Structures are given as C-alpha cells and as structure tokens.
Hints:
It contains 11 helices and 11 strands. The chain is of the alpha+beta class. The strands form 4 sheets. Strands 1-7-4-3-2 form a 5-stranded mixed beta sheet. Strands 5-6 form a two-stranded antiparallel ribbon. A hairpin with a 2-residue loop joins strand 8 (152-157) and strand 9. Helix 5 (167-187) packs across helix 7. The protein is elongated.
Amino acid sequence: MSKKTTRSxxxxxxxxxxxxxxxxxxxxxxxxKVLYISEKIxxxxxxxxxxxxxxxxxxGKDALFLTNPDGQIMELLEYAEPRRGWxxxxxxxxxxxxxxxxxxxxxxxxxxxxxxxxAQRAMSLDNIAVHEASTSRFLTQFVDSNGLKCVADVxxxxxxxxxxxxxxxxxxxxxxxxxxxxxxxxxxxxxxxxSAQSKNFVRSEKLSDNVVNEMDYGRMACDIVGRYxxxxxxxxxxxxxxxxxxIQAIVEEKTAAQKRKSQVGQEGSNSKKxxxxxxxxxxxxxxxxxxxxxxxxxxxxxTSPPTLEPLKERSMTAKEKALAKGAKGTKSIASFFKVN
Length: 340
C-alpha cells in the first residue's frame, strides 16, 4: 500500500518585510550615558578618549578613569540615584547615572604600588607589576616621574631610573599637600565644621569668618587627600598632622563653651553697679539729690537705697494710763444721738 504524503507549500518571501526588518536593525538605539567632561582632557580630531580601569587605593578596588593618548588622565566619578532617567531627544534613557571627570595627582595612586613593591629594594617602573598589564600601563604612561621624587629615593644607572619608597619623605609631602588643600577650602569659604550650615541662613560673611576653626579645615583637607591613599597610610598622616578625631573635637568644643558660660556668669555676679551713659546726666543729677546716686572715683553709679527700720511703739506716761483706766466702761457723747 502506498502512503499519501501531503506537503505544505512554502510561502513566498515578501520583499517589503525584509526592508522593514533591516530598517529596525539600523535604528536600534545604542548604550547612552551622560558625561560631564573637562575641556582640558578633550582630544584633537584624530584622537579618541578611552575609559580604563586602574586600582584605586582609597576604594580598595579598580575604578574608572578617563585617559587621553597624550598622557592626560582624570578620575571618572559616578553619581547614581534611584528612580532617575534621562530624556535624550525623543528617547528615554533608563540609565540615570551621571559621570563627571575629576583632575587628580597620579602620584597619590602611585604611592600604593611603591609601598607594595619598592619598600625593600629600588625598582624601575618597567619592572613593577610586570604581570599586571593595567598597573604597568598606568605607571609607565600616566605617572609623572618628577612627582615620584617627592615620595621615593631616586637612583640613576645609565638610562634606567630606580625608585625606593621613603616613608618620611612621603608623609612630609602629604602634609604639605593637605595644607595646600586647606588653604583652598578657606579661599572658597567652604564650611568645614562638624555641624551642617546653610549659607542662606548665615547673617553675614563676617560672622562666618569669625567662627573659622583651623582644625576643621585641616581635618577635611586630610580626608580629601586620604581618599586616594591606603587606610593605614591615611591613619599615619592623621597622626603626623596631630589631627584629633571628630568626636574628640566635639567634646573639646562643648567643654570650652561651658567654661565661657561659667566665666560670663562670674563676671555678671561680681559687677553689682550699673554704669550710666553720658546722655543720662539729667537723671543722674536727680538721683544725686535724692541720695540714691553715689560717686566712686569720678564715675557715677547707682547704689541701693538705705533700708528703713520699723517705728517702735511709744510708751504711755502714768497720767495717760490713769485716764485710760478711768474711761473704761463709759460711753462716748455720740452714742446718745444714735437713732434706734
């Protein structure tokens, strides 16, 4: 017996459908991100910027950096907030993150590698982290060799330069950099106290200038520099600059305020006399006549009025006592004229 087989006819390709799918593929939106880039790192027409990942000692992991083929590098800061997006032309970008370039000193990041590899012996930058391609590229292309002289001992051998980490020189250079950052914070009039303060509610600039605390500026500047350092090196810098902790500073400020209040209270209790102004001369003359104003070393001052002693009852004579005794039980003349 022969079996019948049925085959369905293949649909003919529609040329218009191919055109529509090709148009859809060509209009697929790419990944869009919003970046604020400094003009200093913008390349020429023939160059392109590059986003690299290098180790960040302050974060303890790799971070994003924007590099230029000319050797310029900037840190790429990321600001992410929940439920945020961007409307770009007629498209909605779900990635609401913002990236900003931040200039930085590459010597701060190079200190980590010098402490790790060049603490015991001097090494060239080519031999440091040979097996780590990103670290080797960062040290050889973006780190300024003149800046390493501030944190390491430099030795020359022909065309090669060797570096050995120097802790004392590093702390002195970091302290100088911290003081420089503190001076910039003062010039910008940035509030560095432990309590929040809004410039909209400050009475005047002079008032805020009088409350400047040098230690607060030093603490914030040390924290800014410490963002690019290892945690243990940051602690060494705090001890080198003798910067107290924020909690200790709050306690010291409260104790100082209590001492000032107690001194003001003692001064107020000791001064019992109120000085008069020159425009109160007429009132002073009246008080002098009344005896309430006294003169002390040429200065008019108000004194308390003298206290009056209570009057004592006068004792009766013998004649008055006899008359009073005889008048007992008698009525006055007015009682005869009363109408009942």
